[in-house]
# Entry
Amino acid sequence: MIPRKSLVAGLMLALVAALPARAETGRLTVELNKAEEIEGGGCRAFFLFRNDTGKSFEGFEMSLAILDGSGVIDRLLSIDAAPLPVARTTLKLFEIPQIACADISEILLHEMTACRPQNEDEMDCFEILDLASKTPAALVK
# Structure
């Protein structure tokens, strides 16, 4: 006969092993929420940053490739969205000069030039990043 303590311990280990592995870090969602024409030409882009990673970011910079209506790269745009507080949604506005919003077909995340959690070393944010767009222009990796 198996001692009761051993049986309970074995069942507990089996239950823990059956649970799905939990991700170490949550997700950081970047959403192109709105785009509007600006006076004198150009486009103002409204980005929402939803930080569910469990970390605050003191450095968060992206290089974006702006593609025109034909899908051709029009320009590169560097944006600095830091700081991104933990468990918050942050709104940031960026201007894209000399191109109408309607002429932007896609915005490509070309490169993460900085991704630094507060009091930590740089990390690879591509692994935790989700992109979305509520505008006609897609936001993609």
Summary: The CA atoms of residues 87 and 132 lie 18 Å apart. DSSP finds one helix and eight strands in the chain. The mean pLDDT is 88. Helices lie at 4-18.
